[in-house]
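Feature request, filed as a ticket because there's no other form

It would be nice if the structure record came with a short human-readable summary line next to the tokens. Right now we just get the raw output. Example of a typical job, pasted below so the devs can see what we mean:
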Amino acid sequence: MKVYFISGLAADKRVFNNLILPIGFEAIYLDWITPLKNESLESYALRLAEKIDTTEDFSLVGLSMGGMIATEISKKYNPVTTILLSSIPSHKHFPARFRIAYFLRLHKLTPTYVLKSASIMKRIFSTEDPKDKLILKQVIKDSDSSFIRWALDAILKWKNEDIPENIYHIHGTNDLVLPIRYTKPTHTIHKAGHLMVMSRANELNKIIGEILSTS
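Raw output as currently delivered:
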């Protein structure tokens, strides 16, 4: 079965380097597409889904923002399994600061280079592996500034209360970006941060393997 991976904001498929799927599953990485002007997250998700062969069984794995997009795809195409990593399935799980940021339009006022710089610093120091730090730094430097600007606005405008039944949600208890106390994961990894996809890959591989193999 094909498993389609969707990365997070200011990231690409390189953040999944440490994940290994069980035998019988094939990883397909969905690259970002250019968003339309003022496009919603829901609309973007369905356009991205055009890369998926929905005529056969498939599963989704979405990281952070990618998990929100995977949720929207899941609502329409009903994959066998949808796995969210360090993400949320509903806008109601956003921490209060996200709502405040949207109300104050902080994401519109802050220069993108500042956002990227802050992102680099936060993510680099969220993993102890020097190789992972180098990868993350390069991934964020390679990210498109206009895409980041659009994505921040689309995320803060996202409204979804419909959570598909086939969703599994893995979250770190020390996630500072999307704190666990605001959401309801099906699986937790103790003391893991937002970037557990790289720093705690061994534990994730085990959980993801069990989910996929039993679905």
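Something like this underneath would help us a lot:
Residues 201-214 form the longest helix (14 residues).
The chain is about 40% helix and 15% strand.
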